[in-house]
Design goal:
The chain is of the alpha/beta class. The chain has one domain: 3-Layer(aba) Sandwich (Rossmann fold), CATH 3.40.50.10680. It has 12 helices and 15 strands. The strands form 4 sheets. Strands 6-2-1-10-11-14-15 form a 7-stranded parallel sheet. It has a 3-stranded mixed sheet with strand order 4-3-5. Strand 3 and strand 4 form a beta hairpin. Helix 4 packs across helix 5. The longest helix has 18 residues. The two termini are 24 Å apart.
Length: 339
Amino acid sequence: MTNEVRTGTMTTFLSGGTGTPKLLSGADAVFDLDDLTVIGNTGDDVELGGLFVSPDIDTVLFERGGVLDTETWWGIEGDSHETHDRLHSIAEAADLETGPRYLPEDRQITGREIAEWRRFSGVAEFMTIGDRDRAVHLTRTGLLDEGYSLTAVTRTLARAFDVDLTLVPMSDDPVATLIHTESGEMHFQEWWVARRGEPRVEAVEFRGASDAEATSQVLGALADPVVIGPSNPVTSIGPMLALPGVERALSATPVVAVSPFVGDRVFSGPAGDLMAATGHDPSTRGVAEAYPFADGFVLDEDDETELERPVVRTDTRMESPADAARVASVVDRLLSEVA
């Protein structure tokens, strides 16, 4: 299928996790990337061993830079892990406890402002970081320590990776997505990466969001038509919606969302459990309730959910850039209708 590339119309994507980055992998077949802004979720950011890691920003950075490991949708393809492996061998030899090791409570909010409960020790690091990937985090951390904003640092890294669209973090202020469970509260990365989605979720908190601000770049981009890909509505998109003024901005502009569900079946990840824990039905209907500002939805062709807003159906599986281009073309068509 040949698509006509939309030119001269600025469009903004909200991105977190893997859903929206997968959609972006085919976006250049439909959208002029010079006209595209991607707002990345930073609620999943952590400081690990003193390094500032921004997973959702980096997924877009690496995908558009052509180096993403698309088997895992994390890290750099073909990366080595000598530093990571050596950290674990040292911990084992020294009989140190492994797993997520938070810095003490009084060190969570000292030094560089980082927000409570996203600072981890580098001892036997619980997130697998490749050696080339680590160079990105070292550069980001160094520039932040020099006084640059996260927005400016992201722009610098995008230039280094020759990224062909505008990539901005949702805020320069710290926000931490915390999962409250029957075993206590923990950062999302501990709950999902280290504990594989256990124990049961009782609530989700976006700590720091009420005091954080969306940047002027973000608010400017939200004045353009917006696309929300099939990212997790709670932990990938929720931190953005928790920022003051963001939902109001989305209510004033055309918005199209791609459901990460087929009826009540989620494509991947913990979205179902997180939706239920935050009072939403874990389904496409629940996504529509979570996005009251959305003007239209792209649903899978097997999704029979009826909504009171415009709906277009297609095969929403995205296993290749060609699949993503197919979904992007449907998104573009619906965006034109609701606009």
